[in-house]
Amino acid sequence: MNDNSPHKGMVYLIGAGPGDPGLITVRGRECIGLADVVVYDYLANDGLLAHAKPHAELIYAGKIGGAHNQEQWQINDLLVAKALAGKTVARLKGGDPFIFGRGGEECEALQSAGIPYEIVPGVTAAVGAAAYAGIPLTHRDVTTSVAFVTGHEHPDKDASDIDWERLSLGSGTIVFYMGVKNLPVITKSLMAHGRPPETPVALVRWGTRPEQEVLTGTLADIADAARTAGFRPPAVTIVGEVVRLRERLRWFDNRPLCGTGLLVTRAADQAGEFADMLAATGARVFECPTISIVPPESYAELDAGIDGLPSVAWVVLTSYNAVQSFFGRLHDRGLDSRALGHAKVCAVGPRTAAALAPFGIRPDLVPADYKAEGVVAAFRELNVAGQTVLFPRADRARELIPTELAAMGATVVAPVAYRNVLPDALPAGALAALEEGRIHCATFTSSSTVKNLAAMLGENRFLKLMEGVTIASIGPVTSATCRELGLEVHIEPAKYTLADLTDAIVGHFSR
Ligand code: SAH
Known about the structure:
The structure is a single chain. By secondary structure, the chain is of the alpha/beta class. It has four domains: about 10-120, 3-Layer(aba) Sandwich (Cobalt-precorrin-4 Transmethylase, domain 1); about 125-250, Methyltransferase, Cobalt-precorrin-4 Transmethylase, Domain 2 (2-Layer Sandwich), CATH 3.30.950; about 260-290 and about 425-510, Rossmann fold, CATH 3.40.50.10090; about 300-415, Rossmann fold, CATH 3.40.50.10090. The chain has 19 helices and 21 strands. It has a five-stranded parallel beta sheet, with helices on both faces. It has a five-stranded mixed beta sheet with strand order 6-7-10-8-9, sandwiched between helices. A four-stranded parallel beta sheet has the order 12-11-20-21, sandwiched between helices. Helix 11 runs parallel beside helix 12. The radius of gyration is 28 Å and the shape is elongated. Bound molecules: S-adenosyl-L-homocysteine. S-adenosyl-L-homocysteine binds near residues 95, 206 and 235.
C-alpha cells in the first residue's frame, strides 16, 4: 500500500445500466459528475458522458494502448495509474460491474495498489432486456428461479465449465450473456440434458435501447432462426416458459413509432424536450441541430430597448429563445423582471409562455394563433396607437409584426436579441442514418431548420437525402419554406405546437 501519496485518487466502479440512459442509478450519475477521468465501455451508453464535468478526460476503454482489443491488464493499469496521479476516476461499465463485467478483476487490481474504490451496482443486461421485452424472469405460476450464465465458452473447449445437466433441469429461467455465436451449442446442450425442445426462447438485442430487437422461438428452432435473420450481438438469450408471457406483457417495442427513425432539426439547446416527446412514442430519434443560438453582434440595440422599458406599454416575445436572450441580458446587466415595470407581456405560443414562468411573469396576452399573423390580429383588438412596443427578436426575423403594429400607430422597437447561425457540422450519427436510409421522417419546427439543413448539406444532396423521407412541418410558414426548397410536406398539425406535431406524426405512422 502506498499511503504516503498525499493526493491518492479514488475509483468509482459504476454500472451504467443496460443502455437506456435513464436506467443508471442516482449514485452512478452522481459519481460520473465527481470524476476527473471517465473510462467507459462499448456497452455503456455514451450519452451518460454528458453527466461528466466539462473538462473531464473521457477515455474509451476499447482504445487504450492503441490496439483494437484491450487486454484487461491494460485497463487495470490505467485505472491504477490515474488514481495514483491523484485523479478521481469513474469506471463506467455496461450493466452491472460484477456481472460478467470483469469488475472483480479491476477491483482486485485497485485493492492490490491500495487505491480506495466504491462499487455502484447497475441494472444488468438480463434484468433490463427482460423488462423491456415484457418477460418477467420469475413468475409465481411459472418458475421460481433464474440463472445468469456466460454463453461465451469456446464450443470445442474440452470440458465445459458449465454443468449442463444441473443447469438444464435445475434452473427455471436461464439467461445467457454473450451467447449469440454459440447459440447452436447452447440449445443442443440444453436439449441433450433434458430441457424439452419446445421450451420457448427469446433473443433480446440492444435491450432497453430504441433499436431493441427481439427474436422468439424454441430451443429446437431458435438457432436456425437467428442465423436466417442474421441476428447479431450484443444480445441476451432468455430460455424458459416465462418467455411466453411476452405476448401479453410486451409494452416497449410495440409502441406506435417503434422502429421509426426520426430526424430532429431544432436548435441544440432546445431539442431535448421535443426529442423526449418523440422518444416516448418508441421512435429512434436522431438529433441534428441546424441552428446555433448566439448573441447579437452588438448589444447596443437591445440595451437601448431595455433602457427604454419605463415607457414601454407592451413587450412581445415570440419564442423561447427570445425569452431566454432578453431575460439573460437583463440579468447580465444586473436587472430582473421588475425592470418591465407596468409593461404588459405578450407571449406567442404556450412554450414561450412557459419559458416566462421561471422569471415570474404571467403573460397578459397569448394569441390563440401562434403565427405572427395571430399576434397582429390580437393587437388589432387592442388600441396600441401611440404606445411603445418592445419586440426583442432574432436577426433576419419576419417584418410582419413591426410593420403591422407600426401601421396601427404604435412605436415599435425591435432590437436583435439573438442570432440564428449555422452550426459547424451535422452530427456524424444523424448524417450516417440519413445516408443509410434509417431516417423515415424528418421534422422541421421552423423555416430556418429547413433552410439551414439544406444549406449544410448543399441543396442537391439535401433533396437526394430527403427522397422517400416523410416530411413533418410544424405549421404553414415552415411548410411553405419546405415547398420552396422542393420538398413535399406530408404532416402538418392543426395547432403549431411540438405536442401537436408529435401527435400528428404518430397519427400518420399509425395509419
Ligand atoms: N456487465 C454487463 C455484461 C457485460 S458482458 C451487464 O451486467 O449487463 C456483455 C454481454 O452483455 C453482451 O454480450 C450481451 O450478452 C449482454 N448485454 C449487454 N448489454 C446488452 C443489451 N443492451 N441488450 C442485450 N444484451 C446486452
